[in-house]
């Protein structure tokens, strides 16, 4: 296959934005050009690192980090490995090339990449921790270090197994749906921009990189990145991209359709020739059916071809819809349970005993030292994410909205991390029983320095793994009882089905949905009773609805507003829902249920009277009733939070 090359505009022998060398876009990058063709995140260097004496950045202190060596060079920037000298956390730092510092458009695009990645905050998208410039004015940003290989490098060794290819595509759908919900269109999806890293015991965890030409939309609809220039990689560009037209989420759907075709059929739909010929093919030629090159199920082929429709209106309208079309094929490829080793197979039996013994060994409990009060307390950490942590505590919970200090210690850290945090959630014993979780409280990390943010992210990623398969396969009776529990939970609503509290953050929701889906798909693939297959199918359909309602901010905002869940609404607003969307949903809610606004005003008036009289409990009750009636009143929500903080300070 011809090597894809990124182009900016459509003609002329200008500097290739992929390799940095001047040549016509229709010519592939030469081996010499390829030394600097693609930015590399992690252990795969695109070029031999230069001699440290020739590079003034190597060994330099940049913010909290010391530059160790160059990882790779691209058309816009150079990426270095850096390490914190005390904590030991390792990051990648991307510097804008000095030759481009005078180009205001390129500088803006460099900042837009950092802003786009930071805005999304998804586990399948590379994380950005800091954005700054050197005293000399050279711009850089600090990001997550990825150690793995690109999907392109993996494909160069041979095709992926069908099950792995579909899982890669589903992870990309999830990440891009989250990006689109936050107004970011990638515009340059291709295997070179997809990293596969080892995580959670699997080698194919996806990390999407290179948002350098991503398009961001503000709440008012203005875009950055420009809509008139032809920008992208010709082999993966949607028809509207090829003619410099407006782009949106469906542009990424097309590009992912090209990648799906490539992963499943072993080649791209339009694969050779000069750039102009490729662009015309995307605009005018129907793609050959992928079944001409590989044995594909009709439903899977139909999904790929629909993603490649010429008109955006004829494609899947979002990544969630594309994922739903791919998911049944992925479910049918669930591997059956491994057979029990034969009695005579001594090595297999010994390996099985070793695995069982390892699973039976208790792992050391991860704890945090909470400094909130006269006596520090060490509490077990139930979950650690990049944004916060959940601590188990049966009683004596710190006040809501209180500022506290927590100290984390772990073998991967050279020194303990002392972090500032705010108490954002209490879960009492009764609530814990209802939510099927441990009692305790959640902390949101605040005022994180870049080095601390990187250390927390690295620790959270290292600790996040799939649960060990310590339980034996369920019996028919046990599986039936489990299905009954899930059916009751499904009847209660999406939060109950997922076992999530009403203010769960988005990574929690996605992890719970993923774990439940794997459980149900495994049971559907190996039903233990005649009615298990249809019951799991019905539950998977309910899970699809729950994930659609709660998995991303915009639909969850509408769901939580209708339910009067102001805590969930606040979570959506914190995730970046534009004010314009919030206001539109509020108008729709008031038009559909006019009594809500009047009830909210009445309860707010009661709250103000009770507050003036010093009746704090009555004020709190009335304020919360107002928020249930009108959960999209941002001023009332923030006023309530300020009121609670004021009471806690007293």
What is the topological layout?
Layout: E1 7-8, E2 61-62, E3 65-73, E4 77-83, E5 90-96, H1 104-120, E6 128-133, E7 139-144, E8 149-150, H2 151-156, H3 162-181, E9 184-185, E10 194-199, E11 202-208, E12 215-217, E13 223-224, E14 231-232, H4 239-242, H5 249-265, H6 275-284, H7 298-307, H8 319-332, H9 346-360, E15 367-371, E16 377-384, E17 388-392, E18 403-408, E19 417-427, H10 429-435, E20 440-446, H11 450-463, H12 476-492, H13 494-498, H14 506-525, H15 532-550, H16 553-563, H17 566-574, H18 579-592, H19 595-612, H20 616-629, H21 634-649
Helix pairs in contact: 3-5, 3-8, 5-7, 7-8, 12-15, 14-15, 16-17, 16-18, 19-20, 20-21
- Characterize the largest beta sheet: strand count, sense, and whether it forms a barrel: 6 strands, antiparallel
- Give Rg in angstroms: 26 Å
CATH superfamily of the largest domain: Transferase(Phosphotransferase) domain 1
The CATH architecture of the largest domain can be given as: Orthogonal Bundle
Tell me the overall shape.
Answer: globular
* Beta-strand percent range: 15-25%
Structural class: alpha+beta
Number of helices: 21
Give unreliable regions as ranges. 5-52, 216-228, 335-348, 351-364, 465-471
Calculate the terminal CA-CA distance, rounded to whole Å.
69 Å
The average pLDDT is: 78
CATH topology description of the largest domain: Transferase(Phosphotransferase), domain 1
Q: Strand arrangement, largest sheet?
A: 2-3-4-5-7-6
Helix content: 40-55%
| Number of strand segments | 20
- Look at the structure and give the CATH class of the largest domain: Mainly Alpha
Structurally, the number of domains stands at 4
